[in-house]
Amino acid sequence: MASMGALYPYGHLLRSARAGVTFVPRRTLTYTTPRRAQEDNNGNNENPSKPSALSSIRNFFGLGGKPSDAPKPTITRRANAPPKREGSLSADSIFAEDEATPKLVASGRTPGRRPTAEQPVEAEEEEQDVSLETRNRENMQAVLDPRPQARTRWERKMVVREIRRRGRLSKTEQVMRTERESLSKSHWFKTSIKKLGPLARQIAGKNIDEAILQMRFSKKKAAKDILEHLEHAKNVAVVRSGMGLGAAAGQEAKKPISIVSKTGERKTITDPSSIYISQAWVNRGPYGVDYDHRARGQINLLRPPYTSLSVLLKEEHTRIREWQDRETTAQRKRKTHLWTQLPDRKVSAQNQYYSW
């Protein structure tokens, strides 16, 4: 009640008790749009008998005389701004409009209209000769043949090498032509080398299907990522390199072949074209950023490592050939260490004394 008394004085409440007069709260005379229009009319009109703003307020409270017949004030609005003049692209711009339009620059070439069906483009302008014979080789000589003398020496060296070999291939070239392999590198796994290394050693040397089975039932967290990568690597080897298709083509071995691996493990191979993991190694990747929220608003910065897995897939033909090479080398070494008897020849120059 104290606040209401401060806002509306009690004298006003008493005066409002009179019959026929109602209490109206005090209003502030703000500078509104109708009042601005009224002042503008007062300044432009020379008739002093026109009612002012105070007389309109007295008429509103019923304190003035007879109501005035003057027209109500009107609001004057400003005229719209003139249209903005916008420029256009230059005559030689690649973003020029399709149809020719007036440009700000009088001089210059303006784009023409697109040719219609009635006006086809000439064949000479539409077809451009971009064959290799029309290129200037002298301009590209510095890039195509930067060292002509070195290139000539290298070509001579290769010709001499082929003549000396008489067309025979080296062992490395023969292996690369007759055997297939596929190298596949995975994406970055959010794990460490210490955790991924044992899994890589577990699948190395195993058949691809056996390795997939091992990762499917492994309890390691990273085994799921390795499983997906092995399946992807197998598909890539089959599609791009044509590996593992001997059984599908009916080229299975007549009888299984038993071999001994480098570790001394004995294996029986029924399909020489099947895929196995020759090598598997881990690659160190970048370090990420993670946050460890602790007590009292403290945050520790973590640097989780990222690693990837690379697998080299080969066919069982390669493992059989490597086993045969090891057996041949070991047999040759054993023969060199065998004891041989002295040759049977005549004894000559006998003497009863030792020669030494």
Describe it for me?
- The chain is α+β, with helices and mostly antiparallel strands and 356 residues long.
- It has a domain at 182-336: Ribosomal Protein L22, Chain A (Alpha-Beta Complex), CATH 3.90.470.10.
- Helix content is 37%, strand content 13%.
- The chain has twelve helices and seven strands.
- It has a three-stranded antiparallel beta sheet. The chain has a two-stranded antiparallel sheet with strand order 2-3. A two-stranded antiparallel ribbon has the order 5-6.
- α10 runs antiparallel to α11 (223-241).
- The longest helix has 21 residues, at 316-336.
- The chain is elongated and about 170 Å long.
- The chain starts with a helix and ends in a 20-residue tail after the last helix.
Rg from alpha-carbon coordinates: 50 Å
Largest sheet: 3 strands, antiparallel
Fraction of residues in β-strands: 5-15%
CATH superfamily of the domain at 182-336: Ribosomal protein L22/L17
CATH first level of the domain at 182-336: Alpha Beta
Region (Disordered): 30-131
Keywords: Ribonucleoprotein, Ribosomal protein
GO molecular function: structural constituent of ribosome
Pfam families: Ribosomal_L22
Q: What is the structure about, briefly put?
A:
With 356 residues, this protein is of the alpha+beta class. It contains twelve helices and seven strands.
Sequence-ordered SSE layout with sheet pairings:
Blueprint: H1 2-7, H2 10-15, H3 33-44, H4 53-61, H5 123-126, H6 137-144, H7 148-165, H8 171-178, E1 181-185, H9 193-203, H10 208-216, H11 223-241, E2 257-260, E3 266-269, E4 275-287, E5 290-293, E6 299-302, E7 305-315, H12 316-336
Helix pairs in contact: 10-11
